[in-house]
Amino acid sequence: MPETPPLTAEERAAAPGRIYFLAERDGGATIDVILPSGQGAKTMLQGTAGDGPPSVLPGPVAPGGELMAIITVDEHEGAHFERIEVRPLGAEGELGEPLWRSDAAPQVRSPAWSPDGARSPSRPPSRASATSTRSTWPTEPSPS
């Protein structure tokens, strides 16, 4: 495979979008964002510090760029619970408060948006619908 040279500073500065990633530091896991140019790095969401798994994990961004799925992890009295949250993304990459949160489950993995953004991350079935294998959250949350 031929080697590809790295992007130039001008190419990185011209690249669109943002890069969202998990950062694990001494203070715990965080979800961070940075521009392709390497500038504008900031922490979007701080998890809790501990010896266990990261307490927050970045998920996919909706095709329109306005929402992000987050996986949260909680360990309490020996029990392990995970949830998927859907949060709005601001113009500068900041996260808003959760618009939707799944029921807690022992494990949630691989949330994904449909290509047109009409459906959001799948979530584990609730105890009330144990026969269901998948349910989705519509793009527009219903009024409470």
Can you put this structure into words, describing what you see?
The structure is a single chain. The protein has one helix at residues 9-14, and strands at residues 19-25, 28-34, 42-46, 56-61, 67-76, 79-88, 100-101. With 144 residues, it is mainly beta. The strands form two sheets. Strands 4-5-6-7 form a four-stranded antiparallel beta sheet, with no helix packed on it. A three-stranded antiparallel beta sheet has the order 1-2-3, with no helix packed on it.
Q: What portion of the residues fall into strands of 2 or more residues?
A: 25-35%
Strand sequence of the main sheet, in spatial order?
A: 4-5-6-7
Give helix % range.
under 10%
Radius of gyration: 17 Å
Characteristics of this structure?
mainly beta; 3-stranded antiparallel beta sheet; 144 residues; 4-stranded antiparallel beta sheet; disordered C terminus; 1 helix
Concise overview:
This protein has about 140 residues and is mainly beta. It contains 1 helix and 7 strands; from the N terminus they run H-E-E-E-E-E-E-E.
What does the secondary structure layout of this molecule look like, with pairings?
Blueprint: H1 9-14, E1 19-25, E2 28-34, E3 42-46, E4 56-61, E5 67-76, E6 79-88, E7 100-101
Antiparallel strand pairs: 1-2, 2-3, 4-5, 5-6, 6-7
